[in-house]
From TrEMBL:
Gene for this chain: Fbxo15
Entry's Gene Ontology cellular component terms: SCF ubiquitin ligase complex
InterPro entries: F-box-like_dom_sf, F-box_dom
Protein name in the entry: FBX15 protein
PROSITE patterns hit by this protein: FBOX
Pfam families: F-box-like (PF12937)
CDD domains recorded: F-box_FBXO15
SMART domains: FBOX
Domain F-box: 1-42
Length: 437
């Protein structure tokens, strides 16, 4: 019931975040909170002009007077948009500066935590039921590894699985991040869609990865695990594994409805000869179960000869079955750790595999983080050094395949990787180099 002039005067005492929030109350407040006079004051206090020339667009500059011309010649909300765009640009500049330092072993940014703090980045999942109603799950635990981030959501108040249709994974950033304090969940935020998963007929359409006494877990591509209570067949937890490569782009540069599309790789002039194959590739491999790391290692100078190209794949042998000097022991018993508010457990024979393959220039060529599981092989070990059961782990996507062979040694209670091979799609290689294998 207050006059508009009085409301505008009250709004003029608010900061930018509060002003954006109050604009969400109703249409009348939204119009008043777009007042150019208020936002020009906020803009000018934050971004001091150099003399009287402010850069408005990349292709033009214009002289701005802080008097009536700057207010009346602009549409309502103009200076609000200018302020928001400039703040977003400042955050992107700060983030790009932080991601420049690269780890020489992984070829990935080595200041992921600092970048997340600078941008206020977090992740949420949105569950949508068959009636279109949405529920946001915010509470999450983060676990950082060398090349990936594992995010675990759990709650005692999950909606009924039978009525759910989709699950969406978003990266979330405050619209106006403030490094001096933690981002507010009630403040204005931007969402970036990372992936969308269909939950209808989850148990029939998804891959069952493993189970323990309490839960059964299912894998959804890419990189998502849904844990269901065995008795009720309801959601117990959701776990996402995100590789650092492309993590920030997909978490920040997409929109709330459209996933961020990676730009196509531009082939670089290279002396590579299809007759010679690939050479000087490096692999960083991380095998972990959420909280525990079972193997973390780097393998240098991998190569592929012409004879190793078959059936649309180039073969890179990392660990050879016949070369026992390179066989690798795993630390601990493989399993995937999970927890909720009440219970926690460990599902045996499954884990998260992080693969980071770098080309000869050190650029990430093929990267993924995904849940995998071990299967008992029917064949017996033919190796003299090992007498035990053989297990296999396989992973495949559109860019390549990974095949792992392990032997369980009962005496020492440990697994040994005796065979590890990567198969890279020839289509992937041809697109990368502009060659024809």
């Amino acid at each position: 019931s207050l006059p508009s002039e009085m409301l505008v005067k009250i709004f003029s005492y608010l900061d930018a975040v509060s002003l954006l929030s109050v604009g969400c109350v109703n249409k009348h407040f939204y119009q008043l909170a777009n007042d150019n006079g208020i936002w020009l004051k906020i803009y000018s206090s934050c971004f001091q002009p150099k003399r009287t020339i402010w850069k408005m667009k990349s292709e033009q500059t214009e002289t701005i007077s802080l008097g009536c011309a700057a207010l009346h010649d602009r549409k309502p909300g103009y200076w609000k948009k200018e302020y928001i765009f400039k703040q977003i640009a400042a955050v992107k500049t700060r983030v790009m500066r932080l991601v420049k330092p690269v780890d020489p072993y992984t070829g990935l940014p080595c200041k992921i935590k600092e970048t997340m703090k600078a941008s206020g980045l977090s992740w949420i999942i949105v569950l949508k039921d068959k009636n279109g109603k949405e529920r946001v799950m915010e509470k999450a635990n983060l676990s950082f590894k060398d090349t990936s981030l594992t995010i675990l959501w759990y709650s005692t108040n999950w909606p009924c699985l039978d009525i759910l249709s989709t699950l969406k994974l978003f990266g979330v950033m405050p619209l106006l991040p403030d490094q001096s304090r933690a981002p507010s969940k009630n403040g204005p935020r931007r969402r970036s869609l990372i992936a969308e998963y269909h939950l209808a007929n989850l148990t029939e359409s998804s891959v069952a990865v493993g189970a323990d006494k309490l839960v059964q877990i299912f894998s959804l591509n890419p990189g998502l695990i849904v844990g269901l209570w065995k008795e009720k067949n309801e959601i117990a937890f959701v776990m996402a594994s995100l590789h650092y490569h492309q993590l920030l782009e997909r978490s920040t540069l997409g929109s709330a409805t459209v996933q961020y599309a990676l730009p196509p790789h531009k082939p670089v002039l290279d002396d590579i000869d299809p007759e010679y194959g690939l050479h000087n590739y490096d692999l960083h491999l991380d095998m972990h179960g959420g909280s525990c790391t079972y193997l973390c290692g780097t393998f240098k100078s991998l190569f592929c000869r012409k004879g190793d190209i078959a059936n649309g794949y180039l073969k890179l042998t990392v660990v050879n079955l016949k070369d026992s000097t390179k066989h690798l022991p795993l630390i601990g018993t493989l399993g995937l750790s999970w927890e909720t508010d009440v219970f926690k457990g460990n599902i045996k024979d499954c884990y998260v595999m992080d693969v980071t393959l770098l080309d000869e220039t050190g650029k990430p060529f093929w990267c993924f983080s995904a849940p995998v599981y071990m299967e008992l092989s029917s064949k017996a070990s033919s190796l003299f050094d090992y007498m035990g059961h053989i297990y296999t782990t396989d992973y495949a996507d559109s860019e390549g395949k990974v095949s792992v062979e392990l032997v369980w040694l009962e005496e020492t209670k440990e697994y040994f990787i005796v065979n590890l091979v990567l198969y890279i799609s020839t289509k992937k290689v041809n697109n990368w180099y502009g060659t024809n294998y």
